[in-house]
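The instructor's notes for this session suggest beginning with a concrete chain rather than abstract definitions. Hand out the sequence below and ask the class to guess, before any prediction is shown, which regions might be ordered.
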Amino acid sequence: MIKLFFDTEFTGLHKNTTLISIGIIADNGEEFYAELTDYDESQTDEWLKKNVIDNLLLSEPYHYSHILGETYVKCTMKELKSYLIKWIQAFDDEVEMWSDCLAYDWVLFNDIFGHAFNIPKNVYYIPFDICTLFKIKGIDPDTDREKFAGLDEDAIKHNALWDAMVIRGCYKKLMEEK
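After discussion, reveal the predicted structure:
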């Protein structure tokens, strides 16, 4: 079973939010990162512009490269679906999805495919939450993730790919805990 650690950035904590970016890193280190060109800009505020939009990684529209298993794409939501399906289906094994406070992340992930029943067949339908794993291991789920994972606390915050790396780091450390 392959574990995919993912995070999303979106236009707000409300039911009509739209996806801005998604970052995924596999337990084997392969990465997928996408920025959406068709998110609802009218839903963004100054905080989102300063802390999320300004931290996006891709600068040219519709840039796509697949180099050494690392995939980065800037696209529409419709285009994202085909890129993501291709990337996920490249894993021969079933994949588990792990996120952090995953309520919005999982809904937005399913929305990429139009419906939960349309997610790639090799994606296990039950997502897992790093917050719950913290709690089970007896660690405060509100702990500083970067510090816990031993990662650079000065890195770009609110970037979906960085956040996915942090989730992966926390998972690895939590699984070492007795």
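Then share the key points. Strands lie at 2-10, 19-26, 31-36, 64-67, 70-75, 95-99, 128-129. The helical segments are 46-51, 77-89, 103-112, 130-136, 145-149, 160-176.
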